[in-house]
């Protein structure tokens, strides 16, 4: 794909991986629209040269409004990164989980972004060099017990990506998946395992985007995806090691 002179929308663009990606793409001479909830952060980011869009992916009416604004303001939009995500770690087997927590995690991670994508397909179809790039997670392939709902949403994102790729062949829209390894962002604050920085991850993502790799990730994640595919119990054992 061409990585300059695009109009790019990034959900979850106000921090972490989305922001690092946005910065790299802005430097490569693209118009970058960052979507998030935090209006103060969005105002700051506008000063740094980004376009911004306020939208709470948990509110489906917000998603519809954002899609109308995008269609009116950015008719040349040709790339959508569905990157927003939250991970709430809790014991799913406990009887007192606030039910809202479950529905929020599902809405933000999958439902809101599936609907945003559907609403933007007519626009993307009209433009050349059109791509949808979805951020999933290794946990979509090797789920973990303290992230039952998160793992389920990321498995959904993985299947959404593949099904959409087939469905959009006739529209000439490419559909790719990014699977980050554990990356040092707000989402992983407090976790002690080896993390790479969001900037380093983006350095690895950019050449793979250029080559239109269907699954964009780092080598050790590719190996682990194979282990999880062939020997799911072994993957679970490795992950459960203290
Ligand atoms: N970090 C990792 O190790 C890792 C590993 C695998 C996959 N991932 C995936 O990578 C993606 C980016 O995560 P990150 O690590 O960069 O996390 P992050 O720094 O916490 O960023 C999450 C982003 O999602 C946005 N967001 C959260 N709730 C939202 C809502 N209701 N409506 C709209 N936007 C919302 C946040 O924006 P506002 O706060 O402005 O709303 C923020 O920009 C996620 O999909 C995550 O699942 C991360």
Description:
- The chain has 242 residues and is α/β, with parallel strands linked by helices.
- It has one domain: NAD(P)-binding Rossmann-like Domain (Rossmann fold), CATH 3.40.50.
- The chain contains 8 helices and 9 strands.
- The strands form 2 sheets. Strands 3-2-1-4-5-6-9 form a 7-stranded parallel β-sheet, with helices on both faces.
- The termini are far apart.
- The mean pLDDT is 95.
- Residues 12-18, 36-38, 41, 55-58, 83-86, 108, 135, 137, 180, 182-183, 185-188 line the site of NADP nicotinamide-adenine-dinucleotide phosphate.
The structural class is: alpha/beta
**DSSP strand count:** 9
One letter per element, helices H and strands E, the order comes to EHEHEHEHEHEEEHEHH
Indicate the CATH architecture.
Answer: 3-Layer(aba) Sandwich
The CATH homologous superfamily is termed NAD(P)-binding Rossmann-like Domain
Radius of gyration: 17 Å
**CATH class term:** Alpha Beta
**SS element count, helices:** 8
Spans of at least 5 consecutive residues whose pLDDT stays below 50 are none
Overall pLDDT confidence:
95
Strand order of the largest sheet: 3-2-1-4-5-6-9
Q: What is the CATH topology assignment? A: Rossmann fold
End-to-end Cα distance, whole Å, is 41 Å
Overall 3D shape: globular
Oligomer: single chain
Largest sheet: 7 strands, parallel
What level of helicity do the residues show?
40-55%
The figure for the number of domains is 1
Strand composition percent: 5-15%
């Amino acid at each position: 794909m061409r990585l300059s002179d695009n109009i790019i929308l990034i959900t979850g663009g106000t921090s972490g991986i989305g922001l690092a990606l946005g910065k790299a793409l802005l430097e490569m001479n693209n118009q970058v629209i960052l979507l998030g909830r935090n209006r103060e952060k969005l105002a700051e980011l506008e000063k740094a040269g980004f376009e911004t869009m306020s939208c709470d992916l948990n509110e489906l009416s917000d998603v519809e409004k954002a899609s109308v604004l995008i269609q009116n303001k950015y008719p040349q939009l040709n790339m959508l990164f569905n990157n927003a995500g939250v991970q709430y770690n809790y014991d799913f087997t406990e009887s007192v989980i606030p039910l809202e927590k479950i529905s929020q995690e599902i809405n933000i991670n999958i439902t809101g972004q599936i609907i945003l994508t559907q609403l933007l397909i007519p626009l993307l179809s009209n433009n050349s060099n059109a791509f949808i790039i979805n951020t999933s997670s290794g946990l979509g392939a090797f789920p973990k017990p303290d992230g039952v709902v998160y793992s389920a949403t990321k498995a959904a994102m993985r299947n959404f990506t593949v099904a959409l790729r087939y469905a959009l062949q006739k529209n000439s829209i490419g559909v790719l998946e990014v699977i980050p390894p554990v990356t040092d962002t707000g989402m992983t604050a407090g976790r002690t395992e080896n993390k790479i920085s969001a900037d380093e991850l983006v350095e690895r993502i950019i050449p793979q985007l250029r080559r239109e790799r269907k699954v964009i990730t780092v080598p050790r994640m590719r190996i682990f995806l194979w282990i999880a595919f062939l020997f799911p119990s072994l993957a679970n054992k490795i992950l459960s090691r203290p």
